[in-house]
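Reply to dn_fold:

You asked what the input looked like. This is it:
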Amino acid sequence: MDIILGWGFDQIRFGMKEADIVAILGSPDKKYESDYDLHLVYFSIKCDLWILKEDNRLHWIQSSNPKAQVFGKLLINENKKELISFLNSKLDDKLEIDDFGWNEYYTFTDTWLSLYFEFNVLTMFSFGHFWSDNDEPVWQIDD
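and this is what came back:
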């Protein structure tokens, strides 16, 4: 699973509609709604794909897939210090940290990458589409 920040993973692109995703990945194992989103959950790839109800577009991906990699580096089960150091060397981005004791959330705010660490090990990550200078979503598909 190759992650491209602001873009998506493998053949899945931010801005895709539900039907496009299902055509590639098949029917989700679970489908549910939250306030603003439709969630497509795929157990085999350990992903929750968030589709904005307002315009039926994929805008957020949450995953704990052990094969997920960004910049050629595996993410899940990586040591916090080593992974943050690696990502800091690749991203020119501000880092925000929320510390809850045994778990911590690290967010690279410009690249919309969030990392969820438990006991200093990455257990889950999420990322979203980029935004234009005019605060418009940058979709990675042509309509």
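The radius of gyration is 15 Å.
Hope that clears it up.
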